Every structure is written in structure tokens, then in C-alpha cells.
UniProtKB/TrEMBL annotation:
One Gene Ontology term of the molecular function aspect: carboxylic acid transmembrane transporter activity
Transmembrane domains' residue ranges: 21-42, 48-67, 79-98, 104-126, 138-164, 170-189, 223-242, 262-286, 293-313, 319-339, 360-378, 384-404
Bilayer topology: Multi-pass membrane protein
Organism annotation: Microbacterium betulae
Tree of life domain: Bacteria
Listed GO CC annotations: plasma membrane
Name this polypeptide is given: MFS transporter
Residues forming coiled coils: none
Length: 425
């Protein structure tokens, strides 16, 4: 039985177009956080509404990831990532032209559902199209695009931040235009051959009367996949509280605690572009090698220091700048990028998108609950906020190094069967 797969004809094209889900994920998160700050004086958004909008975006993302991931395993990658981008474009138009707070609430719900459903499906497609021995590198490339999405949104805020409400509307237009361009470009991508082959085998098993088939959710709740599901969910939930705070509320922290403006905040964040990109490319080089976890430890220490400094010295401009830059570097090696790689390695093809959607959903629900209270905590007790964020990244690092590092990858017989069918097709 062969154990090799035919390399995708254009894996980097697939990695780029599917990986743009990560760009859009970051852009939606950052743009919403900044635009809401700019909308506040005009639309009268108070602290509770600000937190509720941010939380609802995250809750909607969680629901989208949960159902979108499963739909991607059942019906294919292509149909899901096409429908989701249509919805995302519509939501950005709604938020860009919002005249009332209820319009913003509707917009964030649609946006969260859309990008949440797109992400696990697109990441699964990247892994399935990547050549053997380089899957980690290709999946990690999506983290580069995630950083580019953050950088582009922050860079745009430096340009339009002084325009007030109009600047916020431009932030949403940017996301909508990019989503539309990606939607058009993705029309040239075929369905994942690996998914199609695995689905065909699953149908044969069902016809033969197998009690539990390759794509059955019951397999996800049994060994060895249950441990992987719980471990990655716990890791990502703890880490996402910190990451989500950096994405949705860093503008608020810089304005309220650092005493600066949105324009200055945008300029400060521009320094993250070279830092994040360099760190991301280094991670791409090492992720498929044996030194992955040595770099993980380094990244974990840097992440803990990122929030530890403002915890010890208070939330002021220089500590917030250190937090921003250190988190950008540390997260490249001990954050979302590695979570995405784990999520491809630990599950077989017909459970990959479902598992990833489930863990992303769980993490975003936790982050959404936290987001309700973070603006209030930041205003009333900033020290408590930084203690919380430090604890979150420390705990996620412990889970990653002690637990996830020791988990087995997807059983060889499952991967080999999928590979054999793909070759035969």
C-alpha cells in the first residue's frame, strides 16, 4: 500500500487564497475594535455596548466555526468558503454604512458567523493541498497572512484615524473590498482531492454497514481524538483571551491608559509589521523540524513577559508598547500558528474541519464572555486585567508544552488510506 500523495499542482496558490481567511479574521477583529472607538462619539456607544458588540462578534465567530467546520467535512471545502465570503462582504457593507447601533449589532453577527465558518474549512484545505513533509510550513503561512491582516488594519488606522467616524467606515470598506477580491479569486480553486477521496471511502463504508465511519462525530469523542480535542481547546481558549484582548481592545487601552490617539496608536502598531513578519517566517522555517518546541518555550517566555511588564509597572505608554511588540514576537512561536498546525496533524481528513471548528468555537465563546467585562475592568482596575492576561498565556504555554506536545498524531492507517484513495483518484 502506498504512503505517498501526489503533490498539489499549485499548493502556494491554495495556501494564499485559503489562508486569506486568516487575513480577514484579523482584519475584521482589528477593524471592528478601532472603528467602534471612532464611532463612539457619533453613535453614542457606551462601555457596555462596546463590550457587547465585541463579545457578540466573538460569539458569532464561535457559532460560525462550529457549524462551518462540520459543514466543510460533510459537503466539501469549496461550497462553504464561497458562501461565507458572500456573507462577509454583505456584513462589511452593513457596518460601513451603519447609521444606528442596532445596524452594528446585526453587522457583527453576520461578520462573525461568516469568518468563523470560513476559517476551519480554509485551514483544512491548505493542509490537504500541501506537499508531504511541508504541511506545517504551509499552514503556518496562514499565520503570516494573519499578521499582515493585523498590520494592514493598523496601518490603515494610522492614515484614517484622524477622520473620526468616516475613518471607521473606511476601515470596514477595506475589509469588504478584500473579501470580495478573495471571493472572486477563490472561484478558480477546485475541491480538495484529499477530502473528495476520503468522502468517497466514507460512502463505501456506509454502504457496507460500518457502525462508525470515517466522518462520524462519534470518532471525535473517542480515543485518541478526544484528548486532542480537549487539549487544543483548552490551549486555544486561554491564549485567545489574551489575543482577543490585543485585537479588540488594544486601541482602547492605548487611548484610555496610554493617553494617546488612534493615529499615534496606528503608527506604533506599524512597527509590528517587520517584527511579526520576521517572526512568522522564522516559524515557517522551523515548524516541520525537531526544534519546534525549543522555539515554543522561547515564544512562551516572551509572551508572558509581554503582559508581565504592564502588570508590574502599570499600564502606561511605554509598557503598552512593550506589550504590543513582545506579544507579536512570542505569539509567532507559542500561539495561534502552532495551534493551527496541531489542528491539522492530530485529526484525519473527515474530522479535521469539524475538530478545528469545535476547538475554535470553544475558544471564542470563552473569549466572548471575557470581552463583555474587559472594557469595564480596563477602566476600573487595569492591574487586574494584566494579571489575567499574564495568567492566560502562562497557562496556555503549560498546556502546550506538557500536554499537547505528547499527543499522538492522527493514526497512520487513517492517513495512509486517504493517501491511497487520493492517488487512485
Amino acid at each position: 500500500m502506498t504512503t505517498t500523495t501526489t503533490p498539489a499542482r499549485r499548493p502556494w496558490k491554495t495556501a494564499f487564497l485559503a489562508g486569506m481567511a486568516s487575513y480577514l479574521d484579523a482584519a475584521v477583529l482589528i477593524s471592528t475594535g478601532i472603528a467602534l472607538v471612532l464611532y463612539r462619539p457619533v453613535l453614542g456607544i457606551d462601555d457596555l455596548q462596546f463590550g457587547a458588540l465585541s463579545s457578540l462578534l466573538t460569539f458569532s465567530f464561535a457559532a460560525g466555526a462550529l457549524f462551518g467546520g462540520r459543514l466543510g467535512d460533510l459537503f466539501g471545502r469549496r461550497v462553504v468558503y464561497s458562501v461565507t465570503l458572500v456573507a462577509l462582504v454583505a456584513s462589511m457593507a452593513l457596518m460601513a454604512f451603519a447609521a444606528t447601533i442596532p445596524m452594528l449589532f446585526l453587522g457583527v453577527v453576520i461578520a462573525g458567523l461568516a469568518i468563523g465558518a470560513d476559517l476551519p474549512v480554509s485551514l483544512a484545505l491548505i493542509a490537504e493541498e500541501a506537499p508531504d513533509g511541508a504541511k506545517g510550513r504551509f499552514v503556518a503561512f496562514s499565520a503570516i497572512l494573519w499578521l499582515v491582516g493585523i498590520s494592514a488594519s493598523n496601518g490603515l488606522s494610522a492614515i484614517v484615524g484622524g477622520l473620526g467616524e468616516l475613518g471607521g467606515r473606511i476601515m470596514f470598506v477595506h475589509v469588504g473590498v478584500v473579501a470580495l477580491a478573495v471571493l472572486i479569486a477563490r472561484l478558480s480553486l477546485p475541491e480538495s482531492p484529499e477530502w473528495a477521496a476520503a468522502k468517497a471511502d466514507d460512502r463505501r463504508r456506509r454502504t457496507a454497514g460500518d457502525e462508525i465511519t470515517l466522518g462520524s462525530l462519534r470518532r471525535l469523542l473517542r480515543a485518541p481524538f478526544l484528548a486532542a480535542l480537549v487539549a487544543t481547546a483548552v490551549f486555544y481558549a486561554a491564549w485567545t483571551i489574551a489575543s482577543n484582548t490585543m485585537g479588540q481592545f488594544s486601541a482602547l487601552l492605548f487611548v484610555e491608559l496610554g493617553g494617546t490617539t488612534i493615529q499615534t496608536f496606528g503608527l506604533i502598531k506599524l512597527v509590528n509589521i517587520p517584527l511579526g513578519l520576521i517572526s512568522g517566517f522564522v516559524f515557517m522555517r522551523i515548524v516541520d523540524g525537531r526544534g519546534r518546541y525549543a522555539w515554543f518555550v522561547v515564544g512562551a517566555i516572551v509572551q508572558i513577559a509581554a503582559f508581565g511588564v504592564p502588570m508590574l509597572f502599570g499600564g502606561q505608554l511605554w509598557t503598552l508598547m512593550f506589550m504590543t511588540y513582545a506579544f507579536s514576537v512570542g505569539a509567532a512561536f507559542a500561539g495561534e500558528a502552532l495551534f493551527k498546525v496541531w489542528s491539522q496533524e492530530l485529526y484525519p481528513t473527515l474530522l479535521r474541519s469539524s475538530a478545528q471548528g469545535t476547538t475554535i468555537a470553544a475558544a471564542r465563546v470563552v473569549a466572548a464572555i471575557a470581552a463583555i467585562f474587559i472594557p469595564t475592568i480596563a477602566a476600573s482596575d487595569p492591574h487586574a486585567l494584566f494579571v489575567l492576561l499574564t495568567a492566560c498565556v502562562a497557562f496556555s504555554s503549560l498546556v502546550g508544552f506538557v500536554w499537547i506536545r505528547r499527543l499522538p498524531k492522527a493514526p497512520a492507517e487513517v492517513v495512509t488510506e486517504t493517501a491511497r484513495l487520493a492517488d487512485a483518484g
